[in-house]
Specification:
DUF488, globular, DUF488 domain-containing protein, alpha/beta, 44% helix, 7 helices
Length: 155
């Protein structure tokens, strides 16, 4: 494929939260969407509260149930300070979004993922909906930074 056609290629990037989802719904959604890799964007992915989405369990289930690869990229997660301030309602969503976007820009996350890595990948976090979740911000940031057309699908 030549470079001109390659630049016009559309890539699919998915996002999903596991909260309020039963394991069956979570895994079936990923399978039906054609996800090849789950990229964990959580700061804390080993909490007992995560249930089936606890890091080692999730990695095992994704591979066994769906043949989906799992990776955790901590640079895609917020810092504890930013996350705690938002959870404690010390800052609004708008302030959180501004701080998180600055953080991922400073981290240059676009240099830490390849086009091949994100195509057909799904950014994972705990939030049920993407509206007030950093996984949406990561997806939109990558969409704006990478030299490809990235179509974002919120599952």
């Amino acid at each position: 494929m030549n470079k001109d056609n390659d630049k016009n290629q559309e890539l699919d990037l998915f996002t999903i939260g596991f909260t309020q989802k039963k394991a069956e719904q979570f895994f079936e959604t990923l399978i039906k969407s054609g996800v090849k890799r789950v990229i964990d964007t959580r700061l804390n992915n080993v909490s007992q509260l995560a249930g089936f989405a606890k890091k080692q369990d999730l990695q095992y289930f994704l591979q066994k149930i769906a043949g989906i690869e799992y990776i955790h990229i901590l640079d895609l997660a917020p810092t504890k300070d930013i996350l705690d301030a938002y959870k404690k309602k010390e800052i609004t969503w708008d302030v959180y979004e501004e701080r998180f976007n600055l953080l991922i820009s400073q981290r240059q996350i676009e240099k830490k993922v390849s086009i091949d890595m994100i195509d057909k990948s799904c950014l994972l976090c705990s939030e049920l909906k993407p509206h007030n979740c950093h996984r949406r911000l990561v997806a939109e940031y990558l969409q704006g930074k990478l030299d490809k057309h990235i179509k974002i699908h919120h599952l």
